[in-house]
Write a structure and sequence with these properties.
Blueprint lengths: L27 E7 L4 E6 L5 E7 L2 E7 L7
Antiparallel strand pairs: 1-2, 2-3, 3-4
Length: about 70
């Protein structure tokens, strides 16, 4: 998928690798999966960091994040 539409809500944090706000566009939605309480959205930051976002009635939160592929 090449969508750049983000998840609803905010995370209130920034990427530790590039400093881009987690709730700001652009980020690429890689996949979206429904859960019992909302959804899980896998996204990729502009720097390449893969993120797992839990989206529910409280908004979106990044629950896991990888380093960019070229990071040491």
């Amino acid at each position: 998928m090449t969508s750049t539409t983000g998840a609803t809500g905010t995370t209130g944090m920034c990427c530790p690798y590039c400093g881009w706000p987690d709730d700001a566009e652009p980020f690429q939605v890689v996949s979206r999966h429904g859960t019992a309480t909302g959804s899980t959205v896998w996204t990729r930051c502009g720097c390449g960091s893969l993120q797992v976002r839990a989206v529910d009635d409280r908004g979106a939160r990044i629950v896991s994040r990888s380093r960019p592929a070229d990071a040491p």
